[in-house]
Amino acid sequence: MSDLIRLSAAELGERLASGDVSSVEATQAHLDRIAAVDGAVHAFLHVDGERALETAADIDRRRAAGDRLGALAGVPIAIKDVLVTEGMPSTAGSRILQGWLPPYDATPVRLVREAGMVPLGKTNMDEFAMGSSTEHSAYGPTHNPWDLERIPGGSGGGSAASVASFEAPLALGSDTGGSIRQPAHVTGTVGVKPTYGAVSRYGSIALASSLDQIGPVTRTVLDAALLHDVIAGHDPHDSTSIPEPWPSMADAVRRADVAGLRIGVVKQLDSDGFQAGVRQRFHEALELLERQGAEIVEVSAPHFEYAIAAYYLILPAEASSNLAKFDSVRFGLRVTPDGGGTVEQVMAATREAGFGPEVKRRIILGTYALSAGYYDAYYGSAQKVRTLVQRDFDAAFASVDVLATPTAPTTAFKLGEKLDDPLAMYLNDVATIPANLAGVPGISIPAGLAPEDGLPVGIQFLAPAREDARLYNVGGALEQLLLAEWGGPILDRAPDLSTHELLATEEGAV
Ligand code: GLN
């Protein structure tokens, strides 16, 4: 395996800046890796090697000409297919958008391009970001690089798997209920959901507009911070975008120090419902932080247990409205019934053929929850619960600086295991959803491997809105402590896919 693909984005950025390696070489190394392993992993829906190499060559020319370039200039990046990309297919994992070429770049994509980064392609995801396993993609599932028969998490399984299998040093994801953090948990990577409004949603194909947030998917906390610094900031195209400037997240990582930090452990999310190995690694991580001077206290968030129920009313309600625009007229697929049909019949045939079962389930649920006779009973009640969850956060943050929870209840489960059981699938989000309901930021970083199955486990930290830097402080500090404990990155222990025996047997392997 080429050394270039094992480097973190920060390290690669330094090698590029020193002239030691070119962006074309770094980009080619990642394209070669994709060609070697993506037949088995299936992290990408679309790879544009030609354009990536052109972009890389352009950055190399600019560097040679003495242009001042940022820390990540010339570094390749993978982009979740929920973000629209000019001239590059953008499907959000749905059949209904097959073949659609957007006329513009989403703001986070524009910003990574302006930072000189090199988009490699678009990553696989559950259709319209609905799911926790990437199995709801219309284009087939992504496989977890730790065990190809297991799920890579969802909805952003493609972004997490691309980073965990060294196909890309880092990626962009979207998190509506955990789709950046839960995939990070099951793949041994770092994932951040910024404060709601920190990163523009302009050009992000909306799932639930009051919950969606774009964020970094990386192998190190510093890489997440560097990418966060690139994509965060005010955007007049998004009316929920926060106008105030942000401090440097990379500085927070470099100055990481947890002495005196008060960390609240959410009692309700430290229970028997979580796999033993997940809890064990969680508590070991907290002990490491305590030894560095952090204070660990128990806090109660009594309404978190209703968060999933509220989320699965609010999310479908907003999604049913957002997805109404896929009407066969404006974007992508158009199916005309045999012998022709009225506008309504074409629309119905297109939506019938273009949407998968999970999307249809949520559209029906959302339409029902918003209907005149039921609005107060369902949608109205869910909004009240949302307020109670926000108050739980306010009360907790009155006495602690950050909250800590395991990121998700279990390690990666087998592909197919929960596909026919929507409720079991929804329960994956129990620890991640509260942050989206309250708009607060969250990070998941690797906490080790569960002793019972040897699979990765994440620890999540949550901070008050606009205090994203606190997550980078505690995440950066814990990462250093764990690296010393493990003697190297956790992903060094993942199977080397280029020689993995499963590669030969995997369907569609190259
Ligand atoms: N698993 C959650 C859901 O299915 C999270 C989705 C997300 O964050 N995009 O809604």
TrEMBL record:
InterPro entries: Amidase, Amidase_CS, Amidase_dom, AS_sf, GatA. It catalyses: L-glutamyl-tRNA(Gln) + L-glutamine + ATP + H2O = L-glutaminyl-tRNA(Gln) + L-glutamate + ADP + phosphate + H(+). Keywords: ATP-binding, Ligase, Nucleotide-binding, Protein biosynthesis, Transferase. One of its GO terms (biological process) is translation. It comes from the Bacteria. One of its GO terms (cellular component) is glutamyl-tRNA(Gln) amidotransferase complex. Its EC number is 6.3.5.7. Residues 25-471 form the Amidase domain. It is an enzyme of class 6 (ligase). Allows the formation of correctly charged Gln-tRNA(Gln) through the transamidation of misacylated Glu-tRNA(Gln) in organisms which lack glutaminyl-tRNA synthetase. The reaction takes place in the presence of glutamine and ATP through an activated gamma-phospho-Glu-tRNA(Gln). PANTHER family: GLUTAMYL-TRNA(GLN) AMIDOTRANSFERASE SUBUNIT A (PTHR11895:SF151), TRANSAMIDASE (PTHR11895). This is Glutamyl-tRNA(Gln) amidotransferase subunit A. The gene is gatA.
